[in-house]
Amino acid sequence: MVTANRVPAPAPLACPNCGGRIELRGFAHTRAAVCIQCCSVLDASAAGLKVIQRFDEAVRVRPLIPLGSRGKLQGKTWEVIGFQVRAIRVEGVPYSWHEYLLFNPYAGFRYLTHYDGHWNFVATVRSLPAFTSVRGRKAVVFEGRTYAHFQSARATTTFVMGEFPWAVRVGETVTADDYVSPPWILSSEQDGKEINWSQGVYVPGKEIWQAFGLPGSPPAAHGVYANQPNPHMDKMRRAWRTLGVLLALWLAAVVLHLATSSNQELFRRSYRFAANSPGEHSFVTEPFSVPRTGNVKVEIRTDLDNNWAYFNMALLAEDGSRGFDFGREISYYHGRDSDGSWSEGSRSDSATLARVPAGRYYLRIEPEMDPQAAFASAAGMSMNYEVIVRHDTPRLWIFFLALPLLLISPVLHSFRAMGLESARWSESDYGTMAGFSGDSE
Amino acid sequence: MKFSLPFLLYGLLVIGGAHYAARSGWLASPATEVKNIPKSIRENPGVYRSHYHFLPRWFGGK
Asked: In terms of Cα–Cα distance, which of A249, A408, A411 is closest to B16?
């Protein structure tokens, strides 16, 4: 009894060109075989074997996975029966990749493609994708997934080895179109008579090496391949989702802070200051009560006009046990010049004192103004100002300070994800992030 | 997992920190706490010497 893991032994034949031993592992499926010794392409459908193309020894390529190797991929055992090198030319630069033909007598044929350390496990598809467009560019929909067009090129077979289920020949050329939706790739190949569609999935080289039990390590992957999964995409999505949760929590914290801040007005009084008035300028206010420990905000509003004032202030406990000494400078200037009107400074300012214990307090205020201005103009001599004292005021700006800190992670992941997508699409026909959507979940 | 646990923990720390900072008076205006204030200040405010003396400098205008 034959099982999927016990592939029947191939029938040995002799190469009509060099006499070398040829084993047809694809049985009746094989239409062309390539002698492993002389690389002549043979017609396997003819009685015996007939040479249909001789080989230039100078372009012999050694496959990384030897023909006849067996490995288990996607739950099935596959044997490498063919190998070909295909090439495209983009803007005059040749690019070539390797294709391994895999065979399982019960599952049929699959392909392993390899380019610059990037591997894809490919199967031909039975149904046709539907053409569509994404942002005005070509795309196809297949099995519910949208694939963005990546590249069109003329692909030429430059080297073959082993056996194939079609009449393979070196020099065979097709028009190839690749559509991507990482980690998937959908490719069409048109040779003038028919269009073949195949679907590939990106497989890390390490998995290929393990599957076929190959010695050493796979060649390192260079650059970003068309359908290479974007590892930052998932992190980016998770980060933005998490940010959504955090913004909801942030908003809740802001609402909670506002709801629990009494913002109670304790004192309000208007004053007038004349800089040239004789005597002591400092004075104290009437006492007021701070009901419980918390912040105290002292706000000063003036009518300064092209002038400045300085306020030496102290919030002093009525019983003399403690005080909070602080100062505020207020200046407001404005005018008009060749650049238009301008202004700087502000007519008001405030100071917030942290954790002031409950108790009776009063303010000592000592205003100062520019003595030169006092002599220069009557307006410079005096000002009207108002002092407002509030308790337990909300300090929302601290919450807004936290917002950029919350944005760091999603923005960083977005930059990384977009950087990789940018590198991916720079290799496409579009040279931009035309199909930027990253890998699907 | 749909969410990033490390980022969620970091975010909770940031929001919690902001809440604590807002409540505790972090980054409040600089003020010097003074003790044992003479009661005579109420009658004679001029005797008090502020820690925040005004330092003359150039002010004003573009």
From this structure: A249
pLDDT, tens digit, for every residue of A62-113? 899 998 899 999 999 999 999 999 999 887 888 899 999 999 999 999 999 9
Round to whole Å and give the CA distance between A53 and A167. 11
**pTM value?**
0.67
Dihedral over alpha carbons A264, A267, A273, A277 (to 10 degrees): -160
* Cα distances (angstroms) measured from residue A360 to each of A96, A293, A315, B24, B39: 86, 12, 10, 21, 13
Q: Is the ipTM of this complex over 0.90?
A: no
Q: Which of residues 323-362 of A touch B (CB under 8 A)?
A: 323-327, 329, 331, 333, 335, 337, 342, 344, 350-355, 362
DSSP structure class, residue A28? G
Q: With CB atoms and an 8 Å threshold, state whether A241 touches B29.
A: no
Could you tell me what percentage of chain A is helix, strand and coil, using 3-state DSSP and rounding each to the nearest 5?
A: 20, 45, 35
Nearest CA in chain A to B53: A312
In 3D, which of A363, A355, A339 has the Cα closest to residue A392?
A355
Cβ under 8 Å to B: A residues 299-328: 306-308, 310, 312-317, 320-327
B42–A352 CB contact, under 8 Å: no
DSSP A340-397: EEEEEE-SEEEEEEEEEPSEEEEEEEEEEE-HHHHHH-SGGGEEEEEEEEEES---HH
Test mutation, A232, A299, A316, A369, chain B, max B CBs within 10 A: A316
